[in-house]
Automatic annotation (TrEMBL):
It comes from the Eukaryota. This is F-box domain-containing protein. Residues 7-55 form the F-box domain. InterPro entries: F-box-like_dom_sf (IPR036047), F-box/kelch-repeat_ARATH (IPR050354), F-box_dom (IPR001810), Kelch-typ_b-propeller (IPR015915), Kelch_FKB95 (IPR057499).
C-alpha cells in the first residue's frame, strides 16, 4: 500500500465530514483511493462508507415493467425517509423510444445508463441516459457497421461489444473517456494442454457460435470477461486475450433474465429451483451461496443448503441488483388484480473459497397492476 498521507486540509476535518465527502465520490474510484493511505483504506471499508452513501441516497435500483402495446412503466427502489428505515418504490422518469420489434439491454456506468437497442434487422444502436440530468446522448457508430450483436459488457471504462460480421466473429471496444471505438483483442482458441492460442477454426465457430444468432437474454461483466447469457450456448469472451468458450448455466431449462447480477466482480444468478448461485471463474463452475434463507410471501423459509426444499412457490418473477454493496433480491407475487413486490437485502461474505449470505427481514414495496410484466432490473451506483 502506498504510504503517502492524505492532504493535511482533509485530515484536519472531523471524520464525519471526511466520510460525507468520500461518500459523494463515484464508487468506481474507491479501489484507487483506498491505496492512497491507510486512513483512506479504513474510511472506505464497505461497512462504513456504505452507511454514509445511504444517508445521501447515492444508489438506486430501477425496475422496468412492460404494460402492453409497447408501453413501459418505471419504478425506482430508493431509501425511505421515515424512521423505520425501510426502502420504497417510487415512479421513475425514463422515456426510451423503442420500435415494437426491437430488443434492448442495459449497462450502467456511474450515473450513466447505456441502452443497447437492436433487432434482427437493425444493427446495435447505443444511447447513454444521464440519470441525474435526465438527458440522452448518442454513442458514435461502430467501426464495423455490419456487426450483429452477440453480447456486450463494461470492463473498466471501456464498453466491449461482441458480434457476428458476416462469417467472422469480431469484438470492438468503446472508450467512455475519449468517446472512440477501437478493435478489441481478436478471437483465439487456447489449447488446454499447451495453452497455445490460435485463430478459431470452422469447427470451433460451429461449436460455440452456431446459436449465437439467438440474442442474449442477459449480459454481464466479471473478472474482465463479457458474458452472454442465454438458454442455448451461453458464452464468455475474455477482454484480456480474446479467448472465448461456452459455459453451462445452473439450470439448462430456464433462465430469468432479470435474475442476473454482478457484485464485487462476482456473477450471481437466481434459479427458482436451485436458489442463489455464483460463478467460480477459477473452477469454471456454478456454486451455491451458503447459509442463505430466503422467505416467501407465505412466511415459509427456503434454504440453499437443501436442494430439495421448495422454491419461492408464489413468486411470479425475480430481480437481482447491487444496492449499497448488498444484493437486493426482489420477487413478485400475483394477487388478484395486482402484483405484490417483495424485497430483502442480502449481505454476501467471501469466506475462503465459499460465499455465505445473510438475508435481512423482507418487506413489501407495494403493488403494480396485474398486467405489468417485469422486463428489466438494474442498479445505478454513483
Amino acid at each position: 500500500m502506498v504510504s503517502c498521507k492524505p492532504s493535511p486540509m482533509l485530515s484536519s476535518l472531523p471524520e464525519e465530514l471526511r466520510l460525507e465527502i468520500l461518500a459523494r465520490v463515484p464508487k468506481r474510484r474507491y479501489p484507487f483511493l483506498s491505496l492512497v493511505s491507510k486512513e483512506f483504506h479504513r474510511l472506505l471499508r464497505p461497512s462504513l462508507i456504505n452507511t454514509w452513501r445511504r444517508r445521501i441516497g447515492t444508489d438506486s435500483v430501477y425496475l422496468c415493467f412492460a404494460t402492453g402495446n409497447n408501453g413501459r412503466a418505471w419504478r425506482a427502489l430508493q431509501n425511505h425517509d421515515d424512521k423505520n428505515g425501510e426502502n420504497c418504490l417510487v415512479s421513475a422518469d425514463f422515456d426510451i423510444p423503442l420500435a415494437p420489434d426491437m430488443r434492448w439491454l442495459v449497462i450502467t456506468y456511474g450515473v450513466d445508463v447505456i441502452f443497447i437497442l437492436f433487432s434482427r434487422r437493425v444493427k446495435p444502436i447505443f444511447r447513454i441516459f444521464d440519470s441525474r440530468n435526465k438527458v440522452f446522448r448518442l454513442i458514435p457508430v461502430m467501426q464495423d457497421e455490419q456487426l450483429m450483436l452477440i453480447s456486450a459488457g463494461l470492463v473498466g471504462e471501456k464498453l466491449y461489444v461482441v458480434g457476428n460480421s458476416g462469417p467472422r466473429i469480431r469484438a470492438e471496444s468503446f472508450d467512455l473517456k475519449t468517446q472512440t471505438w477501437d478493435s478489441a483483442p481478436p478471437f483465439v482458441v487456447f489449447d488446454k494442454k499447451t495453452n497455445d492460442g490460435a485463430a478459431p477454426t470452422f469447427i470451433d465457430r460451429m461449436r460455440c457460435f452456431d446459436r449465437w444468432f439467438i440474442y442474449p437474454d442477459a449480459i454481464a461483466s466479471a473478472d474482465k470477461k463479457v458474458y452472454g447469457l442465454r438458454l442455448h450456448n451461453p458464452v464468455y469472451y475474455d477482454t484480456r486475450d480474446g479467448s472465448w468458450d461456452r459455459f453451462e448455466l445452473p439450470n439448462q431449462k430456464q433462465l430469468c433474465s432479470t435474475g442476473v447480477c454482478v457484485i464485487n466482480n462476482v456473477l450471481y444468478v437466481y434459479d427458482s429451483g436451485l436458489g442463489l448461485m455464483w460463478y467460480d471463474s477459477a473452477l469454471l463452475r456454478w456454486r451455491m451461496v451458503l447459509g442463505l434463507h430466503l422467505p416467501t410471501a407465505l412466511n415459509r423459509v427456503v434454504t440453499n443448503l437443501n436442494l430439495h426444499e421448495a422454491p419461492l412457490v408464489n413468486a411470479h418473477c425475480f430481480g437481482l441488483a447491487d444496492f449499497y454493496g448488498k444484493l437486493a433480491f426482489l420477487w413478485i407475487e400475483e394477487s388478484g388484480d395486482v402484483k405484490n413486490i417483495w424485497c430483502t437485502l442480502i449481505q454476501l461474505r467471501m469466506t475462503g473459497s465459499e460465499i455465505n449470505g445473510t438475508a435481512e427481514p423482507f418487506h413489501s414495496l407495494g403493488t403494480v397492476p396485474s398486467r405489468f410484466e417485469l422486463e428489466k432490473c438494474f442498479s445505478v451506483v454513483r
